[in-house]
Amino acid sequence: MHAIKEVPVKKLFQIPAAENSENVQPVLSIRVGEKHCCFSITEFSSNELKQLAYYSSDEINIGFFDELIKVHPEFNNPFYQVLICYDYPQSSLVSFKEYKQGEGNVLLNVLFGLNIKSSIISEPVTGWQLYNVYAVPETVHSFLTKRFTTAKYWHQYTLNIQNNEFVENGKLRVDVRKDDFTLLASANNKILLAQTIEYSTPDDVMYFLLRVCNQFGLSQQEVHVELSGLVDQQSALYRQLYQYFLHLDFVYTNWKVSVAVHNENPDHFFTSLNDLARCAS
User: Fold this and answer.
1) DSSP code of 5?
2) CATH for 9-86+253-277 (3.30.300, 3.30.420, 3.40.462, 3.20.20)
3) Does the domain at residues 164-250 carry the CATH identifier 1.10.10.10?
4) 260 pLDDT band (50/70/90 cuts)?
5) Model's pTM, two decimal places?
6) Labelling 23: which of 76, 127, 240, 268 has CA 20 to 30 A away?
């Protein structure tokens, strides 16, 4: 047997569980990507946020999850539901008519050149006659689905599309993380683009958004930009966006927060987790 590789784990945010907080129907929501993992625990019936944490790491592997569970033994508790969202960028949207089952590995290898052993998932996007064909590191998918045997899982693009509300003149839905951001572009009841883009500076983000507007004929004065994730009004990125786009708004969560739960961070930091938690049924 090979030793489990340990990796440095960095906590970016945490909203700790309130003392003496009872969860009757706790819902565990986990989002995991190449270099980040975050989770929330909410109460199903009241949609109340009980706990949240956000971590980054050079690599998300079994060693990472072992460390995470040591820090958060509540992962060993029973849950009413467990929801998982995969934030990996190796994904392609393919129409039902064009996709042939079993060819996902070939498709993603051509597009992305998969360099690790991966689980290939073909996920129907409800109401769109589309498959979201995506890759998840096999070790991560196997670990999570074996540990949480009844968990439901989706890819981030699938959830973004299903949560998207179309607006006149088009929309750019932007979710910012530490080293990359996801973009869902839509107009005229059509999905134009779903992609994850790495960035180093705010200029990188602006360049890509302006390029997308030019490519799809979206007016900077008319398109709606919905912003969430790790960006605030004092940041250089927000100031640039504000200069270039007339319709710019943050997308906030809709969960309830107990008075006992103290959150010093902007609500929109955790919109993507809230979008996942809303899938509980």
Assistant:
1) P
2) 3.30.420
3) no
4) low
5) 0.93
6) 268
